[in-house]
Amino acid sequence: MPVRRCSVFHSLPAAWMLCLCLIVSAMPSGAAASGQPEKTDAIVLASGAGYKKMVNALAEIFTLQTGIKVDLVYGNMARVTALARQSGQVDIVLGDSTYLHGAELDFTRRHTLGHGRLVLAAAPGKTADSAAVLDNPGATRIALPDSAKAIYGIAAREFLLSTGRLPDIAPRLIEVATVPQVFSYLAAGEVDYGFMNLTHALNVADKLGGYVVLDETAHTPVLIMAGVLRAAPSAEQAAAFMGFLESPQARAVITANGL
Questions:
Q1: What is the pLDDT of residues 184-236, one digit of tens each?
Q2: 153 in Cβ contact with 195 (< 8 Å)
Q3: Element (H or E) spanning 153, and its range?
Q4: If we measure between CA atoms, which residue out of 14, 15, 176 comes closest to residue 84?
């Protein structure tokens, strides 16, 4: 298959080895032997794992249209940005704009894909017609991602603060590390409700009792962007991908995934 995927879930040195082996194996033998980047009809795109389904679809369409191959690297944003800064092999990074700005990556071009939307999801057998379900004393267990490190955990905390629910709701909150963990708790019936992003909720909608998109003005906007690194080994091909992101075909995929 022209689109190759790599998931980063281990320690950073191990992640480098895995991804660099993937990239070197795709190079012509001369480039691999010399250790110098060589211009190829391929790009390396590193993305937050939460957008895997959308990025997979975008990469497939782009490769079909242009013949340019895409190597995909997924992981949490800390590992993705560290790999982008230090490996010298990443062309494009995709994720939350605030986090990427804080990581001090040097981009030559940026494109905002859309707004990440915070939702409140219900466990199977329950409903979530509005945020008012949070005020029901029967909602005794409410999960949210890490409110200090996870983008949608931060947004959830801001939402609860701005709507006046914190600190009173605090005893009912269960904080976990990531959005996928929130979903796991919901699917297992271990919590009644949970905060996640719309993209993830759409992917697992058949396993939820429902969800409601929350008021975006009640928290800091979440902007999802893609950027070409100044050190991109395949800058020309990366520019072609960025142009593709502005096409009607790409926009349809992005919209279908909740951005």
A1: 999 999 999 999 999 999 999 999 999 999 999 999 999 999 999 999 999 99
A2: yes
A3: helix 151-162
A4: 15
Residue 213 CA: distances (Å) to CA of 78, 155, 197, 202, 238? 27, 13, 9, 11, 33
Q: Are 42 and 68 in contact (CB under 8 A)?
A: yes
* Residue at 230: amino acid letter: R
Cα 113 to chain center, whole Å? 12
pLDDT digits (tens, 9 = 90+) for 112-158: 999 999 999 999 999 999 999 999 999 999 999 999 988 999 999 99
Q: For 74, list phi and psi in degrees, rounded to 5.
A: -120, 150
Q: What six digits make up the tokens of 73?
A: 């690297």
Residue that is written with structure tokens 């902007």 in the block: 223
Judged on CB neighbours under 10 Å (0-12, 13-18, 19+), 174 is middle
